[in-house]
Structure formats: C-alpha cells, structure tokens
C-alpha cells in the first residue's frame, strides 16, 4: 500500500457499477489500488466499466447479478470470496427510479419492483457482506438519496425505499460494529447520470426549478458522490458509522 494507492490489496464490490455513480465509484476504487467487482444486470455496461478499469492496469471483474434475487446475491458473495479470498469494501448502489405517479394511483407492480431492487437488494447484500466481513473487518456504504431524508411528490416507492435504506444502515451499523465493520449511507441530490437525465431532458423549466432548491445552484457530478463513498470506506472515516451523509449542495438544510 502506498499513500497514493491506499486501497492496494483491498477487494471492493460495487453494485450497479455499469453506469453513473456506480461506474464512477468503481473507477475511483481502481485508481486507488483496489481490485474491483463490478456487479450489474446490464452486461454490456458492466463489461464497458471493466474494460475502462482494466485499461488503467486495475484488476476488475464483472458479475451479472440481480440484487433483488436473494439466491443470486448469496452466490455472488460466495464467488467473490472463492476468487479473491475476502471482501473489504462494499457499495450497495444498484437502484431504479420507478414510476413517477400520483400517490393514489401509484401502480402496485412499480411499487413492488422499486422496493425489491432499492430496499430488499440492499438488505440481501448487507446480510451476505456482514457474514463475509465478520472475520476481517470492513466498510459498507449504501447509496440512499435526498429522497431518504424528505418526501418527493409522485415518487412514493423511491422515497420509501430510500428512507428504508437509511433505516437498514442504522440497524446494521449497530449490529456489525462488534466485527469492526462500519456501515454508512450517502444521500446524493440530483446527479448527472442516465437515471436522472431523462427527468430534465427537453424540460429546462423543470431543471431550473429543481436547481433553485439547491443553494449551490447546480446538480452533482457522479465523481463527487464517488469521492464521498471512498472517504467513508477509508481509514480517514474510521470512527464514523451509522451515518447518512447528504451530498446535496446544501439542499436539505
Ligand atoms: N442520479 C441521481 O440523481 C441520484 C440521486 C440520488 C440517489 N441516486 C442513487 O444512486 C444510485 C445509482 O444511480 P445512478 O444515478 O448512477 O443511476 P444509473 O441508472 O446510471 O445506474 C444504476 C445502475 O444500477 C443497475 N441496476 C438496476 N437494477 C439492478 C438490479 N436489480 N441489480 C443490479 N443492478 C441493477 C443499472 O443497470 C445501472 O447500471 C441509485 O441507487 C440511485 O437511486 C441517484
């Protein structure tokens, strides 16, 4: 391990790493020396992330896994340990936006899928991660949202799922502290990724109104969320656990 590569010999799993915040986080981990497992349901995007990481000389491996499938999640973690020997850092980032609908007509199938991916997915992953890290310590970061701190109209399922992620983070942090595993969450504001861009595409008025609510008057870049995740996985945050850190340009204050 060197000062410029503090994650050398660390094994990092990032779910939803085929795109957006997950890809940016995978790139940061790789640049800092970690071997990275890129998990996603998007095989093409995942392969592209792996190619980008390997181009820089990093060790990267794609794992095709739907985080909403508990059996597949258990198998993924078994494979990580048998291939790499252990797991040091896990970023539970995979997520979907789901329907944008009024509360009283919010579709039940959309509700169920959003909760399955965004909330159950994080739960299944953390169960496996805590088991795998219990002998050797570790850091887990869950990607929640400002929607985990406040209610976003027309996004009942997304808001509920992201509030739930913070709840799971707080419970797991207390239980896993005995194994020297830290568990935190990040809560990004609107971030320039393929999940967010369609919400403002061709609608500058909507983008302007969203930006007006952010004191810093801009949306986040994926790298800014990745840098916060990295910090929460690093020794520099060694006494921080159970927190849900806003990365929001001041929106929630
Ligand atoms: N972009 C934003 O404005 C914003 C703001 C706050 C929080 N977030 C959260 O950040 C996380 C990453 O979002 P993003 O903006 O980078 O979006 P994105 O769409 O670019 O990336 C999400 C990735 O998750 C993958 N994924 C979806 N369902 C999956 C599943 N069942 N199993 C495994 N992988 C799956 C997708 O294929 C995609 O690669 C999400 O949890 C999202 O809710 C995003």
Characterize this entry briefly.
By secondary structure, the protein is an alpha/beta fold. The chain is 44% helix and 15% strand.
Please, could you describe this protein's structure?
- The chain starts with 10 loop residues before the first strand and ends in a 6-residue tail after the last strand.
- The mean pLDDT is 97.
- It is globular.
- It has a single domain (11-192, 221-246), classed as Rossmann fold (3-Layer(aba) Sandwich), CATH 3.40.50.
- The chain has eight helices and seven strands.
- The protein has 253 residues and is an alpha/beta fold.
- 44% of the residues lie in helices and 15% in strands.
- A seven-stranded parallel beta sheet has the order 3-2-1-4-5-6-7, sandwiched between helices.
